[in-house]
Amino acid sequence: MPFPNKPTLPSSIWGAMIICGTVAGAGMFTLPIVMAGAWYRWSVMMLMLSGFCMLLSGLLFMKVSLRFPPGAGYDTLTQTLTPSWWRKINGLSISFVLGILTYAYISASGPVYQHSINALGININDAEAKGLLTLLVASVVWLGTQGVSRLITLCLAAKLLLFFLLFGGLIHHVDVSLLLRPNSTAAQNRYFPYLLATLPFCLASFGFHGNITGLIHYYQGDERRVRHALVFGILLALVIYLFWLTCTMGNIQRQDFPTIARQGGDIHALIQAMHDRLPQQSLGLLLDIFSHFAVICSFLGVTVGLFDFLADKLGTDNSKRGRAKTALLTFCPPLLASILFPQGFLLAIGYAGLFATIWALFTPAFLAWRAHQHFSGDLPRGKKQWAAIIVVVLFGGINIIAWLGSQWHMIPEF
Ligand SMILES: N[C@@H](Cc1ccccc1)C(=O)O
Which site in 16, 298, 341, 363 is 20 to 30 Å from 61, CA atoms measured? Predict the structure, then answer.
């Protein structure tokens, strides 16, 4: 739907940053751990394929969303174009994924914060660190959108800057032979069988679809800019992931990864393993600061999404009290779960990958399918749209098979 007047719009670069900010979050920290079995070359290919399919579904969603008034998000689109049972499933999968990601962020960053606060000489335990961090993020979200978006922009800038500073340093320590020929024993020389199990994690790592509506609003419906922002955002995230994989797999031995996974696979364990390899203290410090910003950024983005979604569904008002109620519902269950089950970070990202298939892959394909019938009637469907819908649905189907296969131990685990 056309926007009435279009003053000068922000450059696509800013939109790309917003997308990259959500994409490259905690999921990224699971990648080297779950990809240790398939190792470097296969993992690089899998990342490219996943990035491509997730971008494709994002573009399908964008196309449909542009036909609606500005601000129309998942709920409006599914309400108009899909049967009510699908709308319900879609809504449930969105709240589940955002909730479990909140749990994952709290579980992953709690130990990192505890470590940093202890280093300052203040003694706190894991649960206290998690409570403190959650309270901090919850207060920002409670205060309102303006503050949050400023903080997200700030964290994102810090995250990108620190990332390139850090990896400029780390890349010098990469051992190329470790990347290409990791170990010697014949039994450990198998990589391909482990590839499928990485899929749900790749999918979660490239999730961003809740932000498309906001992006369309930001660019006032200018399709070209939104498209460029999505493409560049995903490309930038892919570059970051490839760098990250190179630096971690080029620094940590393949056989050391299962130990990290057994410790819950959280960021702290991974960073600890890297610390042991780093000769300079400054790089270690940079790594710590980077992980703080990386998680806080997605933590804010995802919890704002969950907060808005819950407020909308439950109809809580926008007063301070109403917002406090929604904030309690957004943050308390994941915090409690994280204190009771602190080791579930990897598992949670896997679940997020499974359930995100519904709203990040199937729903966009379904919407594109129905939108054509709804708006263009008898006109034949373009070949490109056909191809995109098939690729996206196939990718989603394989992801579900991969998740079930590893859950039922039918595909090997490293
Ligand atoms: N991509 C995000 C997770 C996410 C998944 C789905 C939607 C939004 C966010 C991360 O890696 O942390």
Answer: 298
Residue 21 alpha carbon to ligand 1 centre in Å: 10
Distance CA 135, CA 158 (A): 22
Domains of the chain as residue ranges with CATH = 12-407 (1.20.1740.10)
Spatial distance between the Cα atoms of 215 and 245, rounded to a whole number of angstroms: 29
Tens digits of per-residue pLDDT, 225-237?
A: 999 999 999 999 9
φ and ψ at residue 364, rounded to 5 degrees = -55, -40
Instruction: Report residue 149's pLDDT band, with 50, 70 and 90 as the boundaries.
Output: confident
Closest CA to 258 of 33, 27, 31: 33
- CB-defined site of ligand 1, < 6 Å: 22-23, 25-28, 97, 101, 204-205, 207-208, 210, 298, 302, 352, 356
Ranges of H-type helices in 206-280: 212-218, 223-249, 257-262, 267-275
What is the pTM (predicted TM-score) of this model? Answer: 0.89
Alpha-carbon distances of 346 from 31, 48, 253, rounded to whole Å: 10, 21, 20
If 0-12 CB within 10 Å is exposed, 13-18 middle and 19+ buried, where does residue 232 land?
middle
What are the pLDDT digits (tens) for 7-17?
678 888 888 98
* Ligand 1: centre distance to CA 204 (Å): 5
Residue type, 227: R
Ligand 1: which atom is nearest the Cα of residue 97? Answer: 6
Q: What is the predicted ipTM?
A: 0.96
Nearest protein Cα to ligand 1, atom 7: 207
Q: Note the maximum CA span of the chain.
A: 70
